[in-house]
Amino acid sequence: MKNKGARIDTYSTQYDIDFVVANSKVTLEELRELYYYADEEELDDTWDNGGATTCLLKRKSDNTVVVLIRYMGRSQYKSSGDKLLDIVNVASHEATHVAIDIYNSVCATIDVENQETFAYFVGYITERILKTLLNK
């Protein structure tokens, strides 16, 4: 990474799809060097808007599908006025998107009658997102 403090972490799951977390110091240009959309188009400028975004992408180095969470630190949903609480809010929100994207990609369903598996998976993803964003 060219920028001081830039961090991109890859985390594996029990499925064949990893998820990747990029902190606010990672630039769009750096992401474009590593990933492209599933249709192999380059990442567009919509990746530079908002507080955080999640998308299914392909890794250029091996063409594998990943779910990327990019945190930009510009949350438009600051509810608490506390930066840590805002990061936890964003992490849990994006973790839900990641879990649903992965379930959808592997044709799994969320069983509302037995939610524990999905809840533990969202918790695991949230913890890893926080690990990256809080530099742990």
Model description:
Strands 1-2-5-4-3 form a five-stranded mixed β-sheet. The protein is built from three helices and five strands. With 136 residues, the chain is α+β, with helices and mostly antiparallel strands. The protein has one domain. It starts with 7 loop residues before the first strand and ends with a helix. Helix content is 35%, strand content 20%.
List the helices and strands and how they pair.
Blueprint: E1 8-11, E2 18-22, H1 28-34, E3 35-37, E4 52-59, E5 65-71, H2 83-105, H3 116-133
Parallel strand pairs: 2-5
Antiparallel strand pairs: 1-2, 3-4, 4-5
Helix pairs in contact: 2-3
How much helix, percentage-wise, in residues? Answer: 25-40%
Beta fraction: 15-25%
Taken in chain order, the helices and strands follow as EEHEEEHH
Count of DSSP H/I helices: 3
Which descriptors would you attach to this protein?
3 helices, single chain, five-stranded mixed β-sheet, 136 residues, globular, alpha+beta
Provide a short characterization of the protein structure.
The chain has 136 residues and is α+β, with helices and mostly antiparallel strands. The chain has one domain (8-133). It contains 3 helices and 5 strands; from the N terminus they run E-E-H-E-E-E-H-H.
